[in-house]
Amino acid sequence: MWPIFTKTLKTNRIALLVYNAICIGFVWFYAAFFPSIFKESEKLKEAFKAYPQDLMKAFGIEIESFISSFEGFMAGEYFSMLWPIILIVLIIAYAGSAIAGEIEAGTIELLLAQPISRLRIFFAKYLSGLFIITVFIAISNSSVILLARLYNVSFHWEKFLTISILGFLFAFAVFGICFMLSAVSSSKGKPAALTGGLLIIMYALNIFSSFQESLKNLKYASFFHYYDQNAALLNNHIDTLSIAVFLAVGIICTIVGAIAFVKRDIATT
Amino acid sequence: MTKLSFSLRIKYLRHMTTIKVDKLKKYFGKTKAVDGISFEVKGGEIMGFLGPNGAGKTTTIRCLMDFIRPTEGKIEILGLDAQKNSPKLKADIGYLSSEVDLYKSWTGTEHILFMERLRGISRFDEELIDKLKFDPRKKAGALSTGNRQKLGIILALMHQPKLLVLDEPTLGLDPLLQNYIYEILKSEAAKGKTIFMSSHNLAEVEKICDRVVILKEGEIVATESINDIRRKRIYTVHAYFEGEIPKKEIVTDGIELIEELSDGLVLRIKADIRPLLHKLSEYNNLKDLEVTHASLEEVFMEFYR
Question: Which of A78, B188, B285, B289 lies 20 to 30 Å from A10 when distance is taken between CA atoms?
């Protein structure tokens, strides 16, 4: 199992570096930019009053804290959309090809012909993916702290730890779904497309639910409702329901994926 | 090991059943791929698994390797259930696919080291790389078909398996490399290893196999030793006549008309040829006669009809 784990990490190290470099680039920009935002906070507050408040809320921007604290700024600017998108792309790129990609390429037979059970193959790749996600979250969010210090921005490090935990839980659920789909597919495009499509629908549901009272319950079907970056960064809080939903989806999908992979026929051509 | 104990070991192996397939069925939805086949492969023998495209050869091999699961039936390898004991059995099985798919960015060496680590053993014989004239430093993505097959053979043999399962091992290879692979397989069989290989290359099967299972549309049509197939009485007779050709009198039960010539008949008979020769000798206008024993290809084709 460990040779597969280390082999997977080695194969994905460049991608991990690239994703982190992208995040660090954006964080650097925001950390450098925030002091000037903070200086003009009163003027910006007036300007934001002209924006539709519901629209701002739908996109996760709390105006007051957006311009008055680094946490609020990052919650609205970085952790509301950009960071989750990069995280989702990393997850889908890895998970979609972890098993389905090997079946599509035919290399799965190299593994299946070895004296190692399918369950071990599954969990070797699964744990590699979780490790990659953890490393990404650790590096990308550590860079926020380091770069904030560099630009003498005032912040609370424990709130960035909280958003890291929330981000991991969100990633755990998304990864579970995509990995499960990878385990039952024979080409990497399908799990990627299905997971991406599902998340787009969830995002839309979350947006629409905030515009109309009759649609407000739609938000419970969306991961983006439970991924409350404002609560994590402003209040240092993760809702118990969010933890429960993400863990439940992640665990159930992992179990279903493992069983499906063990039982399925695997034909490479 | 002394020569005597080695030959006794081979004799002992030949009494053991390495592979036992019992009423194997595999359906993909409503499509029948394999329909109730049963056969055994004895230890130390080279068994050919012959059939045209779509006969069910690869499906059977994938069931043996537990890549796909039988719809019905049972497979035992080395006395163990092939599905329930799959990881344990793979320690003693070397597998070679018809198209060897490799990790394109890895070199041959990286593949070999990875498999060694997965198996937890290092029994790799570097002499094999020299014999095959394979450069393990090249990346798999840059290898030709032949070199990919060489690496596939190395990976299949590197852990000294008891059983080799090969799916069309010489597909797409040049004759020189084909012959080299035959030598390797014969040498492995001489060491007591069992080899189960699928093929639709009749010459290859005749060259190296001890026995052959012939598959047609998911069913076994014959299980024969190569020597028995060679001894099968199938003849082609060219009979040439002056004037009238007595077709109706000659082409009777058991005699098949292959072609009608302007001055004769081409016949096939799958039995004792003497009655036909006796009958033909009674015709005064018989001017020439040519009798050929059927080639192995013609014998095999009989099974496919």
Answer: A78
